[in-house]
Amino acid sequence: MTSNGSEKEEVPSFDDPASQRRKEYRLPVTFPIKVRPDRQEEDEEGPWAHLETLDLSAGGCRLNDPLNILGPGLLVKARLDLGDKSPTIRCRMQILDQRPSPTNERAWGARFLDLEYHQEVRIRHRLNLECRRLRQQHRRSVAV
To answer: I need a labelling partner for 129 at 20 to 30 A (CA). Which of 53, 55, 86, 107 fits?
Structure first.
């Protein structure tokens, strides 16, 4: 019970780092991400696949694959847009394994390979903001 006598509200499990068995906490957030195979030269113009994250951490993400272009072990170049009006995060990722998707679409786990420290900080900051927003949304729904 809280000091005013009401029951203590429950916080969603994504808010509890102890509930996750990974180095970096992961939030269910959707951001646009573009990928293409890493074998293409940086200067080479090649098609980018426009996908979305299904969740995100500073260590990697789960992304949808409606185009059925990803597979285990694939190395890709990625451009992640955190929706915060700052430059996209440019990095390489390794596709790990197929993961469940809430919409039953194909989804893959991926890890970031070469994030710079300031990019990791940006991701953590964006996830902290998103976590606060989700907490406030949860509190409002419990109060109703």
So the answer is: 107
Q: Would you tell me how many other CB atoms lie within 10 Å of the CB of residue 34?
A: 17
Q: What is the dihedral of CA 55, 61, 67, 73, to 10 degrees?
A: -150
CA separation for the pair 93, 110 (Å, rounded): 6
pTM flag (> 0.70): yes
What tens digit of pLDDT does each residue of 48-83 get?
A: 999 999 999 999 999 999 889 999 999 999 999 999
Long-range CB contacts (within 8 A, 24+) of 109-114: 109/60, 109/61, 109/62, 110/60, 110/61, 110/62, 110/63, 110/76, 110/78, 111/59, 111/60, 112/58, 112/59, 112/60, 112/61, 112/78, 113/75
